[in-house]
Specification:
single chain; 725 residues; alpha/beta; Rossmann fold; Transcription Regulator spoIIAA; 4 domains; 11-stranded mixed β-sheet; 3-stranded parallel β-sheet; 25 helices; globular; disordered N terminus
């Protein structure tokens, strides 16, 4: 095995700055107006070839909210010639040859959204539109786009390296439960036949990969790169293995013999199968690398070893397929190894291959974030789309991303698994400068900035107060079950940013559309007053998600009392500002841990407050999320997993999920027959009647008119928020 690549800094926690690399020779071609999507555009630029070609499932929008634009402009700034193949036909390899053979590699991404979540609803119904496609046309991307595109790239130019990334690949880096087939699938690295996977916001790794390949190194030599996952046929020599393939270790563990240490004896094929597990049948011991030590997971804190050369062995793909409890355990381990400052490498066997997942990348510093967002974006779709409307672009064209990451840790959300828990913030100057660019460059700008946010609205510059504690912390959330005492909660940088943004000439209003972490906002009433007074346009959308503590605990969300506290502040400051404003809360039906009784209590909570939700969300098991592990395994990975652990209540069949959704829409007469049946089963027929205290009315005879109360129409709620915390 090769040693670490040459572009890695001596101190692994202080990597090289993105803007400090020597430029590739092709920088002489300068900056392209738009990254070329055709041979004709390449000819206009004087290019005979592309160094790197990005294949994406989204339409090409040259805006920093679109992944292909960030990646393309980033690589261009390093001196590389970058082409874009956007939403190609995938029935043959020909569309993947339109720009010729890339000199260095193909970069493949499924786009800003997972292709399956983009195409199917939580009830597995096919969507009729695609917000990331011109004129919202559906069907312009294949299911599992990363796999399909990678295979076509391999067909087009077999010997060209393939680098996969983006959220679709990121959340499938190890064996993962697949809701759409109700099965556990292999790592996307295996199915795509790609050479390397870069997970998360992968600027650091991507720049390193590009320069290393340009310098003549092979992808197989980059196996130890942070933020990357690769497939190995054999493991490196001299590493310590922490064995985490079991969940019910005995209470007292003696030192176990090294099963790879055979000395003078050569095992038969049957012995190899017995000793190495069912996936190495017929493999000779001499062909398998020998860890210098194997430590059972329960003893890892008691044993001495070099953490820099230690990996954790997860249960294999075949084991998690057949054992849901082991799947939950593997999910728990992966999430505990998410801090880039203390995470260990993870290894998971897939048949005879090893998926090797390196620790997460070191977060970008503010000056690097500023540099990335200040690249030469045109801030509009590629001209080839003409006047076609791209809804996702319309939604974000006047919004500004001020930060990355989320330390909330909500179990149903995959932001943490992709972007990490450490907040990476831009400088105030960079953000204000982008607002001025929007004012000057975006056609039809009306004076409204549609959002200043990111994964959340109010985590800007909120980081751990102690770098030393941050480097050792393994908490899954900085705000659950309570806000960590080491977390900075002063919102004044955000408050000052809002004030300066709305003072920019030509800016009439700055809206906040990103989801608000209201329990965190309670720590800074001045921020809440600024938000309510100047940045709420009548309605503020927030997401308590549920009312019942039992379910909220499975979500890692605060108790509903935090919502009540925030509402008091919201109403107080709205009244002070002389505004009539309302909170619009959002909730999830059928989340793991939520049974019918919990949903009944939630519906009563809604009725008591006269909320009549129009659009509601059913839990969607996205890859790698902790709640998805609960859904599949019926175990709780927030606790130590045991075979005898209490089962988590899970609604899996369509009727169960529809019933839970019906409780949220108790006011919709289409749901009344279903709710009457459920209330009868729950022994709550006292909630069936025609008085105000009842949840649903009695069944009405076809010949008897309904009461005026039963005929009243529900109040429509606003559309759901774009980002929810």
């Amino acid at each position: 095995m090769a040693k670490k690549h040459s572009t890695q800094a001596t101190d692994e926690f202080s990597p090289r700055k993105l803007f400090s690399y020597p430029k590739y020779w092709a920088e002489c071609f300068g900056t392209a107006p738009y990254l070329p999507m055709s041979r004709a555009e390449m000819d206009e630029l004087g290019w005979d070839s592309c160094d790197i070609i990005i294949v994406t499932a989204d339409a090409y929008v040259d805006h920093p909210s679109f992944g292909m634009a960030v990646v393309g402009r980033l690589l261009e700034a390093q001196g590389f010639r970058v082409g874009i193949i956007a939403q190609p036909e995938w029935d043959s390899a020909e569309p993947f040859k339109k720009l010729g053979k890339p000199n260095l590699f193909f970069g493949v991404t499924g786009g800003n959204m997972d292709s399956l979540i983009n195409r199917y609803t939580a009830d597995l119904r096919m969507r009729s539109d695609d917000a990331y496609t011109p004129n919202a046309e559906a069907g312009k991307r294949p299911d599992r786009s990363v796999i399909v595109y990678s295979q076509r790239c391999r067909e087009a130019y077999y010997d060209t390296p393939i680098v996969i990334g983006g959220i679709e690949a990121s959340l499938r880096r190890i064996a993962q439960y697949d809701y759409w087939t109700d099965s556990v699938r292999r790592s996307v690295l295996i199915d795509s036949n790609a050479d390397i996977l870069l997970y998360g916001n992968s600027e650091r790794a991507l720049v390193d990969v590009a320069h290393e390949i340009a310098n003549g190194r092979e992808v197989k030599d980059l196996w130890q790169m942070r933020g990357a996952a690769v497939v190995l046929k054999s493991l490196p020599e001299g590493w310590t293995e922490i064995d985490s393939t079991r969940i019910d270790w005995p209470s007292k563990i003696d030192t176990i013999p090294n099963p790879y240490d055979f000395h003078d004896r050569e095992p038969s094929a049957d012995q190899a199968e017995n000793e190495f597990g069912d996936e190495t049948i017929g493999t000779a011991a001499a062909d398998i690398a020998q860890p210098i030590k194997i430590i059972p997971m329960p003893l890892q804190r008691k044993e001495k070893y070099d953490s820099k050369t230690a990996y954790i062995r997860l249960p294999s793909h075949s084991k998690v397929v057949n054992d849901p409890a082991l799947y939950a355990h593997a999910s728990r381990v992966l999430h505990q190894e998410a801090n880039p400052y203390n995470a260990k490498t993870l290894v998971q066997r897939h048949d005879t291959l090893e998926v090797w997942v390196n620790p997460p990348p070191i977060p970008l510093e503010t000056e690097e974030m500023d540099w990335v967002f200040d690249l030469a974006y045109q801030r509009r779709p590629h001209p080839s789309y003409g006047d076609a409307r791209i809804p996702a672009y319309d939604m974000i064209k006047t919004s500004v991303n001020i930060m990355r990451g989320c330390f909330g840790g909500c179990t149903f959300c995959s932001i943490t698994e992709h972007e990490g828990r450490i907040i990476q913030s831009r400088s105030e100057e960079s953000i204000l400068s982008e607002i001025e660019k929007i004012r000057d460059l975006v056609p039809g700008f009306t004076g409204t900035i549609s959002d200043l946010g990111g994964p959340t609205a109010n985590m800007y510059k909120l980081n751990c107060k102690s770098p030393a504690i941050q480097r050792t912390c393994k908490r899954l959330s900085c705000v659950y079950p309570s806000i960590c005492k080491h977390l900075e909660t002063d919102h004044s940088p955000t408050t000052q940013l809002y004030r300066k943004a709305r003072a920019i000439p030509g800016v009439k209003r700055v809206a906040i559309a990103s989801g608000l972490r209201y329990d965190l906002a309670l720590k800074d009433p001045e921020y809440v007053e600024e938000l309510v007074t100047h940045h709420v346009g009548g309605y503020l959308k927030i997401a308590p998600e549920h009312s019942e503590d039992k379910t909220l605990a499975k979500m890692m969300k605060p108790t509903i009392s935090a919502y009540d506290e925030f509402k008091k502040l919201f109403d107080k400051f709205s009244k002070k500002a002389g505004k009539e404003q309302y909170l619009i809360p959002y909730f999830i039906a059928a989340h793991p841990g939520s049974d019918d009784e919990d949903m009944l209590n939630l519906s009563l909570w809604l009725k008591e407050r006269k909320f009549k939700p129009d659009q509601v969300q059913t839990f969607y098991p996205s890859p790698m999320a902790l709640a998805t592990a609960m859904y599949y395994s019926e175990r709780n990975p927030l606790e130590k997993v045991r075979y005898k652990s209490d089962k988590v209540s899970v609604s899996k069949n369509l009727e169960q999920r529809r019933l839970q959704k019906a409780f949220l829409r108790y006011h919709d007469e289409k749901n009344w027959p279903m709710l009457r049946t459920a209330l009868t089963k729950l022994g709550r027929t006292d909630l069936i009647g025609n008085e105000e205290k009842h949840l649903v009315p009695h069944e009405v005879s076809k010949n008897k008119p309904r009461s005026s109360a039963a005929r009243s129409k529900p109040r429509a709620a606003a559309k759901p928020a774009r980002k929810r915390r």
